[in-house]
Amino acid sequence: MKISKIILFAGAIKYFAFGFLFFMNPDVITAMDGIILPTRNSANHIRAPLGGMEIGLGFVLVFFALRKETVFYGLIVLWGSIGFTSLARLYGILFDGAGDMSNWLSFGVEFTFAVGAFVCYWLEKKHQGKHNVTPS
Which of 15, 25, 100, 113 is placed for a possible disulfide with 54 were both Cys, Cβ 3.0 to 4.6 Å? Predict the structure, then answer.
């Protein structure tokens, strides 16, 4: 349970950090990858999902981590959100030729979080199964 909570809080910190950066200044963050946002509307289209939604996911993970009964569900949210993010990034690397160092590094971090969340999910499920034995 302790490692599961650590994974959830670490995932929340990741989401808060990147979400805050995209929320406050999407132009600077996207420019690092060569994406120029020509209008304030385009900046806002980046700010909302990459800023607001990531901050929101961070809050959701903290909420799930604070209660023993909901850690299991937080692991599902983290596993699904960061897991599919890493798969989408890997797709871009393999099929779009986006294999620069920043994409590989991001993929590595995202995939590691996804695997960690899945392993913790599996262990939590296994642990719950031992304690939820029905009488015969």
Answer: 15
